[in-house]
Hints:
The complex is a heterodimer. Chain A is mainly α. Chain A has one domain (2-222). Chain A contains 8 helices and 2 strands, in the order ααβαααβααα. Chain A is globular and about 50 Å long. The two termini of chain A are 20 Å apart. The model of chain A has no long low-confidence stretch (mean pLDDT 87). Residues 288-292 of chain B have low confidence and may be disordered. Chain B has helices at residues 43-50, 72-76, 94-101, 110-119, 133-145, 163-180, 192-197, 215-221, 231-234, 257-264, 275-284, and strands spanning 4-15, 18-28, 32-36, 58-63, 66-67, 79-82, 151-155, 183-188, 200-205, 208-214, 223-227, 240-246, 249-254, 269-272. The radius of gyration of chain B is 21 Å and the shape is globular. The chains are: A mainly alpha, B alpha/beta. Chains A and B meet through α1 and α4 of A and α2 and α3 of B.
Amino acid sequence: MWTLVRKDLILDRRQVALNFVLYLVMGPVFLSLMSETPVKLIAAWAAIVGTMIPLSLLAREDKFHSARLTCSLPVTRDTVVASRFAGGWILALSGGLAIVAAIYGAHQAGLGNPVGEWSQALLVGFVTIGLILAVLFPFTMRFGFAGLIGFLVFTQVLGIVAFLSVVLVGGQGAVGAAIGGVAGALGALQGSFGPVGYDLFLLAAVVALNVASFLASRWIYRRREF
Amino acid sequence: MSENALEIRGLCKGYPGFALKDVSFAIPRGYVMGLIGPNGAGKTTIVKLIMNLVSRGAGEVEIFGLDSLEHEAEVKSRIGFVYDEACFPLDATPRDLGRAIGPFYPGWSNERYRGLLGEFDLPESGKLKKLSHGMQMKLALALALSHDADLILMDEPTAGLDLGFRRELLDHLSAILQDEGKSVLFSTHVTSDLERIADFVTFINDGELVFTLPKDELRDEWGIVKGNGSLPEQLAGLPIRGVRRGPYGVEALVADAAAARERCGKDVVVDRATLDDVMVFMTRGENDVDAR
């Protein structure tokens, strides 16, 4: 598995380096644009941007048809999927942490005004990365970069449907109830578990979601044809 | 220990509008097999099935006696695979590819890889996008030959190459193969590529196996018989594989040229059949004649 991760890092290193340089510049710019920035927001943003690194490599794979190269190597499809998860997490976490570090450094140099506890921000970042990767990986395993685009289009369509339901048929009650329901459930969990228990619950949920996503991705990738 | 480098039994695969039907053949260790057939016959599908790049409908693939699905990583480590088109990141260099791919193979030799790059006039540090299609195919061949693979699989490696480049690539290949006694499956629709290097020929048409034979048997026993309009009747009972009618007479591909010569005497001309002839007669001729 690590040989595959190493292969991807060697062959995609220019793209990865370019992303890192771009993000290290973007972080302080993001900070300078806001007067008071909650660190949780910074972490969520950094996590989203960080996950774009492994996801952007999918576009290269589609462009160069290099999945055929990977699947002709002496490895099983399951190992390929495991390497995608491992490499994806490593790149997303290091990308997100690099952005947070750049923002922190910029703040130490007198730029912007982040507010909140950084330890909480790390949890938010970890959970955000975990959610994005767990949801997107099965799509990308089946459809490559087109799967990512397809998912994003689907969420856009979902947003438009929600918007139209509010505007045309007065569905704000239903949309509001759905969002309120999720927020209420999370609040109830926080109340019953306590702050530490709730954090542990979130971490466990993200891990469980990623395990489920990994198993689904494996099932899907075993059937993919090149 | 299996005597065959590759053995395929009852391989099937369905696509909308095309099906590979019950294909079986074997390559003995140390021999070169040409897999021929017109475009769309199913050659690439067979190669992809061997490499598990597509899922099987039915059938078995054994490589050195091991099932290619059950022992996927193990058998692939013994295969050198040359694709019909390069599938490398074009901003990488040959050196990057060697560093990235070498560690997957226990038998990988950097020295050999560098040697082959030099032999093929490939720059170690030039980006792949600056290489022509032919150079990229040479690179794929260098990668396939650098880990001491026992079985080389090549899917249309000469497609799209000009004659000079093709000959150069084949010269390199045949020199290497003669020296090292590798087993090879060489899929191509350019049959002249195989005249020099193949020991066996397997012919696929429309997803079905037409024949799998030693090339010498084709060369020595098969022939093109040229005669007049009554030729099919003259050859009745002989193994006719295809008939073509033209403005100057009739030609028939027969699997027993000596018998045809004996039967028809001076009434006909009998020429040796090339692989091109075989493919043309069996795909475009009237090949539903008797005595198949």
